[in-house]
Amino acid sequence: MMNRSIVPLLCSFLLLAASSASAFNITKILGQYPDYSTFNELLSKSGLATEINHRGTITLLAIPNGAIGDLTSKSEDVLKRVLSTHVVLDYYDPMKLKSMKDKTAKMTNMYQQSGKAAYDQGFLNCTAKDGSFVFGSAVKGAERDSKLDKSVMNQPYNISILSLSQPIVTPGLDGTLAPVSAPPPKANSPASAPPPAEEEEAESPEEEAESPSEEETEAPSPSEDADSPAPSPDADAPPADAQSPPTPSPSSAGKLKASLGLFVVLASMVATY
């Protein structure tokens, strides 16, 4: 059976756990400081105050009424983005800032957890400068001129409220951020430029037509063949007399044979007389 003396201790523990689940109410805290009434109203209008109250540890970079600027004219969507960059997800007070080893500290803000941050929009830079501290967006090229004025309140190590001289400007929270870190495209890339060797070796159709090949140069054109008469097949041959003696016809050979026979007969008759 449970000891009755333990029951009060258990109830106290449960009450402490319930209170730690909602460590603070940022609307009530800022309500104690009239100089930040406009900033407090904007937190409630954008719905960011409810999300802040569910955090265990934050540092709120508050803006006084006189330096609120054009935050009141922004849409609720853009306003929530801007204000979420003023909520650091860690505890910083003046003492902790002075103990920073480096001259510049990079801090994560609540906008980083939205899933929409790009190009370091979810980060802030805090730089020690001339005995003071300057806050600005970590986006490349962003202005860093929001100075720390004072510490409004702090409750280590849950909540710290620091006052800045003006709102932090994070480029592109309205959806107009260009990829500032992307290198510009090259004018002439090797992939797009044609290889010079092919340009030198290639000839245009006109040049090919003007410079015929060797075979075309040596062969006579059809027009020349038509103008000049074709040579006769026996033009260069020697005359028939120079080649071989004419052979006697069959009639002349018979007459010659008969004359020779007659001569032989006459010669034999002369010899007998």
Write a structural description.
The protein has helices spanning 6-21, 26-30, 37-46, 48-53, 76-84, 94-98, 196-201, 205-210, 214-218, 222-227, 240-243, 250-272; strands at residues 58-62, 87-88, 104-108, 123-129, 132-137, 146-155, 159-164. Mean pLDDT is 75; it is low at 13-22 and 198-246. It is α+β, with helices and mostly antiparallel strands and 273 residues long. The radius of gyration is 57 Å and the shape is rod-shaped. A seven-stranded mixed sheet has the order 2-1-7-6-5-4-3. The protein has a domain at 15-164: Roll (FAS1 domain). A hairpin with an 8-residue loop joins strand 5 and strand 6.
Question: What are the main properties of this structure?
Answer:
about 270 residues; alpha+beta; FAS1 domain; seven-stranded mixed β-sheet; 12 helices; rod-shaped
Q: Give the CATH architecture of the domain at 15-164.
A: Roll
**How many individual β-strands?**
7
Choose one word for the global shape. rod-shaped
- State which percent range the strand residues make up: 15-25%
Helix and strand content put the structural class at alpha+beta
User: Uncertain runs with pLDDT below 50, 5 residues or more?
Assistant: 13-22, 198-246
User: Helicity, in percent?
Assistant: 25-40%
CATH topology of the domain at 15-164: FAS1 domain
Q: Strand arrangement, largest sheet?
A: 2-1-7-6-5-4-3
- The radius of gyration is 57 Å
Spell out the helices and strands N to C.
HHHHEHEHEEEEEHHHHHH
**CATH homology group of the domain at 15-164:** FAS1 domain
